[in-house]
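Reply to dn_fold:

You asked what the input looked like. This is it:
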Amino acid sequence: MRGRRKTVKISEAEWSIMKVLWDGCEESGRGMTLGEIVAKLAETSDWSNTTIRTLIIRLSEKGAVSIDKTTGVYKYTPNSSKNECVRSEVNSFIDRVFAGSAYNLMASLVKEGKFSDKERQEIIRILNDIEAE
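and this is what came back:
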């Protein structure tokens, strides 16, 4: 994998759990209980407690989530930051779809007109900053 550390593959459903954990753990400064996760996901999904628990167990088995079993109520925390997981997912996508070429990804996005004028200007600024380094 060209020098990258091994990454965890997270399914679309598991991403929903991870987003709740990243936000909730950052807000509270501690792990989240199953009840807290269920309550947060109830706002956007109709998953049962069992489904959510199964997804959390899968994430734990993959090494993406830690389970603190030292208290009476289990607390779940993500093992990687959101940025690390996003970076891994983007790199995987670039490898699969664009043969490892970030240029081909960007060229595709630019050709499709996926950027607003403000976003294009920001990208140009970032590229100029990189060039200046």
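Residues 1-5 have pLDDT under 50 and may be disordered.
Hope that clears it up.
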